[in-house]
Amino acid sequence: MNSSNHEHVAARRVRLFARMLSSFAVLVAFTLPTQAHAASRAPSPALHGVVKDSSGAGLPNVQVIVTVLGRVARTDADGRFSFVGLPAGTYHLRSLLIGHAPGHADVVIPTSGGDVNVAITMVATPMRLSSVQVTATPIASDPRDVAQSTTELSGQALSRQLGATIAQTLTSEPGMSMRFNGPAATAPIIRGLQGERILVLQDGDRTADLSSAAPDHGVSMDPLTAERIEVVRGPASLLYGNAALGGVVNVIYNDIPSTNPTRVDGYYAGQ
Predict the structure, then answer these.
(1) Is residue 41's pLDDT more than 80?
(2) Is pTM beyond 0.70 here?
(3) Domains of the chain
């Protein structure tokens, strides 16, 4: 009986040990992947940098961009910036500041180790802003809403109507005629108005001749070399001032090209 009890106790101990061993194996099996996953999610080193000018002084308020990720940081008063949590890999940094040429730097973030430091140097450069045109009106309305009656002659239409003077070129246009005081002393008449009531411009500027004040003087512009002639009649002409009551004639030349030529171009003509 005692021998049977001893065998029963020994069997229970064996079964208990086997259960404990099985539980330990299951615990190890769950713990190892968790630890491996935690190790794989360990934070990568941080990126610290400074942006300086050509003299070595820190530049504040510089916009630093990680181009691949689109993350942005701004430098402090000493020109320093930081990025935390960047995945391991190679990145290109770009720095932007008005009045300086863009700065560039390439950095490598390792999977482990100490923080990464980088320095970016930016060179001051002159900048040219686009022009801003400001137009004022006596009332709060868009000047483009004013009734306009315009005529434009360019290209083949200008070549077909080309005359010896600007006035002769425009005589066939509706509402226009010519003041004649000799072959050269001519001036345009718009809807019966002439002289000081007609404003004649060359490339948007006054011609500064005596054609409006003296009838024996003509408009000092040759239509042969004109690229385009614009005529403004009606209320819209008042946008050019009180001296344009009758209308505006604007002769546009191409003496100074506004674009880079892409091919050889030219013309010839005679009178």
Answers:
(1) no
(2) no
(3) 47-121 (2.60.40.1120), 143-252 (2.170.130.10)
